[in-house]
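Table S2 (text version). Query chain:
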Amino acid sequence: MRGDITIPRSEAGFTLAEMLVALGVLGLGAGLLASALHTAARTMGSVSIPAGDESISAAQRVLRERLLRFSGTARSDTATLVVDAQGEPNRLSFSAPPTDRDGSGVLQRYRLMLTPGGTLMLYSASSLDARMDLRDPSLAGWRQTPLIEGVRALEVSYFGDDPVSGQARWQGWWTDRPAPPALIRLRVRFGSGDRRVWPDLVVRPQATVNSACMVTPGSGGCQQP
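Corresponding structure-token output:
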């Protein structure tokens, strides 16, 4: 009687042919998975960025550029020195030197507000035009620069000393003050279902009370009082 032990087929492991078949199946599965991932990547890449993201960045660049130049221009119709600016919770009117793209050395007046149709609009006019009063609600003759559409609400806040408490805090109004606010914050809300997001735009105006000036007749420039 021979001493060989017969090993059942279920315990003998895979044959070479079986291993080759298994490897082939694994390779086919890997190929199908790679193809599916490639298709998914192409599908994701074809999805466009939500409309308005680039327009938000462009609008914020325009506003930051103007607000940084916020001029401490003084009003001439008051007994004490006050900055010629009208800061309200839902609009802002101020003066600033022109940007390089404006191509003019004349001080500009700006008004930022939301139109009834939901467009965030920046109005501008030359300070040489006596009709363009920052306190006049009329916008006849002002140039219009649409910034972004589909806006539901505009919220403007101003950081500085509270005239009542004397404490520095965020406020909803900035009128008849001796200096520009230390910070200006712009918040924009879009309509229901609009997935666009407006990051809070906070700007520190470069002007201070020491730069307050009177507009020079004939040139529109800023002259120290």
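Notes on Table S2: The chain has two helices and twelve strands. Residues 50 and 195 are 7 Å apart (CA to CA).
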